[in-house]
Amino acid sequence: MADNGQLEVSVWRGDSGSGRFESFRVPAEDNQTVLDVVSWIQQNLAGDLAYRFACRVGMCGSCAMTVNGTPRWTCRTHVKKVARNNRLTIAPLANLPVIRDLATDMDPFFARWIGAGGRFVPQRTRDDPVAPVRPDSPGRQAADAGIECINCGVCHAACDTVAASPDYLGPAPLQRAWTLVNDERHGARGAVLAAVSGAGGCHNCHSMGNCTAHCPKELDPLRAIAGLKRATFLGAFGKEI
User: Fold this and answer.
1) Burial letters for 69-100: b for 16+ Cβ neighbours within 10 Å, e otherwise?
2) Residue 217 and residue 229: Cα distance in Å, rounded?
3) Residue 132, exposed/middle/buried by CB under 10 A (0-12, 13-18, 19+)?
């Protein structure tokens, strides 16, 4: 048990091959975030501690880590809301290779994003007039529902299917695919549906909903994946969503 006014913090040290948790005592402060705790440890106790952060205000998502077993943005997670008996356990995001300590390799995550056909393909050139898009159209509203994803990887770390199936594309790439399928400006909607209907695609989702439950942006990847399942099913019969 930590002394009064202090936190006992266990931090993962090492890489994917080997490592262990190391304990630190950190002063407890008012309005302290988990990222504040990690930064204090790096600045005062372990100068070689590896971790990521950038904006500190919940816009970049680079500070995502596993806090007491739950993937979170550490910059927006207040210690008083998650500490248990003045204790914190901080680890890297699950389902991703660990470079060192709390820093994960995001390349496999973005490779899935590409595999889901996540690149926007315009139908017009810059010399063509801008295509009008009605903001109240069903397709535009469906696309807008997921477009605020910042690819922080929290849903990827929370997903049981990702953990069990290395080939599964994952919630964020599939949500991106759903936004493109509903974007009338996108010139490769058929290719996106083909990409997400194959092995490791949307039909691998078990609909557990951990992605939606843990999304810091309060998006609904589970609903997007259900939309893709419906669209690919209809596509098999030559119908459109």
Assistant:
1) eebbbbbebebeebbeebebbbbbbbbbebeb
2) 23
3) exposed
Q: What DSSP designation does 203 have?
A: G
Calculate the CA 201 to chain-centre distance.
17
Cβ atoms within 10 A of the Cβ of 216, count?
A: 18
pTM of model > 0.85:
yes
Structure tokens at 8: 């006992």
Phi, psi of 64 (to 5 degrees): -65, 135
Q: Which CATH class is domain 6-104?
A: alpha beta
Instruction: Return the amino acid letter for 51.
Output: Y
> Mind listing the pLDDT tens digit for each residue in 97-131?
999 999 999 999 999 999 999 999 999 999 999 88
Give the start-to-end residue ranges of the domains of the chain: 6-104, 107-236
107-236 CATH = 1.10.1060.10
Number of Cβ within 10 Å of residue 199's Cβ equals 10
